[in-house]
Write the structure tokens for this entry.
Amino acid sequence: MKNFSFNLIISFIAAIFVCLIVLPMLALFTTTSFVELVSQFRSPMILSAVLISLETSLTVVFLALCLGIPVAYLLAMKNFKGKEIIDTLVDLPISMPPLVAGLALLILLGGNSTFGRLLSNHGISLIFSKKGIIAAQLFVSIPFLIKSTRDAFESINKDIINASSTLGASEFYTFKTILLPMAKNGIYTGMIMTWSRALGEFGATSMVAGCIPFKTETMTVAIYQNAMSGELTASIAIAILLLIFSFTLLLVFKSRVRVKAG
Amino acid sequence: MGIILKGISKSYDGQAVLKNLNLKINQGEFHVLLGPSGNGKTTALSVMAGLVNPDSGSVFIGGGEVTSLSPDKRNIGFVFQDHALFPHLQVFDNIAYGLRVRGIKEKKIKKIVAHYLELVRLQDMYNKYPFQLSGGQKQRIAIARALAFKPDALLMDEPLSHLDALECERIRDELKRIQAATRVTTCYVTHDHSEASALADRISVLHKGRIEQIERPEEIFYHPKTDFVAKFVGADNILEARLVEINGNTTIFSLNSLGLTDQLKIKARTYPVFARNTKHRLCLHPEKIVVSHTPKGKNNFLARIIDIVPQGAVFKIIGEIVGLSGLKLRAVVPKTAFKINSNTEKIWFSFPPDALHPLCGRSCRAAIPQRACNNINLFK
């Protein structure tokens, strides 16, 4: 009887959770008719927002891989002074409000800062450009890749790394042939999380790149802009597209990981 | 050639793990580091491999000093306790790993891998992944991987400890055969003295970061040098005795020094270190005690059985000598050789004078090598 009550309570709580996720999504799908949605998908403004979002977020994933994997390796494999500080810095963008991150980037990259002027002198302008979007998205999303990859490196049995070393492999050879293949699933997870976070980024992006249609307007920015100007159907269409992207990607990733584990 | 450790010391958080360790392993020798857990065996092996840097001392492998070299520059094969095969690589690629690192051509690699797969008798397993192999097969692949690039030394850290008894015995025999075939200098770590005796050309017994004794297995087992070695190898009857009389080949001891109220005399073979009125610690192997219902030797003690512990095919019988409370002896007898009626039964513990050895190792009997213990033959 006690087990029955316990299971009933657990099931009830799980049902609340499912409602919490499903109901808002259902609301999105039921507010507008299918025909209206399809016509919105053909709108040049929405297509532009989708393309900008995909271009910037995929670039962010690539950059995060290039920058994040070495940092993750350093944190997982090496002991050095200041490791705790770097570790905390990696976590900081996750806990920092996106608007604060955006403001900080705006000040750093703007024409009034030394760094901003330095970039400007070399013909690089990040503010109100796609590069600015990439900078903002990278800032807020790279910690996910670093943390996931670091965990994957740390979970590898040290004896396996030592075995590679005693077999004559250099650190780089071990990294290339043992660590990277064995940490593959952790890296994939990090990539998905980074991509999802970059795709959904709004606060920092709008601060750094603004909301210029056909130039810096990403999907999330377009949702906000359309909703504020009363174009709710356009907002819903973009939101549904974002949901479809996220859901498909997660599904593909999970099935891939399951196949590998099996 | 071989492996030499010179004055190796290592501490962790102020806790000394190795204390001025000196060890010479000859070229082609199968050497076993034996000792209980936490006494520095694995640290010593890791120092040889370069996985741990010593605080002081030098390491020589294959004739050259390697103390400052990283593991990948030492040309050593290492077999880990949990095999440490690369899980994402097939057996072939695991064995080929060390060869590819050395830039050997694929055609030659194929030949070498095939040779070592044959050596460990797993020719059909080349395309399997480690998770498809049994524990014993994994260890054999790990051995093949460690040998494939012809290392100057093979280091093994308790490679059989995760295997069941049957598999363990099988791999042990394989290992001995493979080492004999390759003649690679081998240093093998274990806490199991029967494993050590089955494999080793020589054994080093490690205790608290120091080597207590280095000898051939039979010497370690039948002529332990210290209390620790004696107890660790199972010779846990240690009698403190005062020498009363030397009578040619036989020496008579009194056990009064145990604080016993009654006189108890025992006869032992005469060793060069024996001198009148000196005290000695004598070791008596449990296997050498004959347990019977009637006295059967030159040294006979009537004992009250305290405990009988079944250990596979033998009983370990712990008895207290009647009239001499405090003196306990342990005997090991085949289950078929003696019938135990009850735990309270009194029985005779008998042993010949040859069964007693002073705790001083080979040095104290160097003058009379022809008197070596009969049981040495057991290890041949």
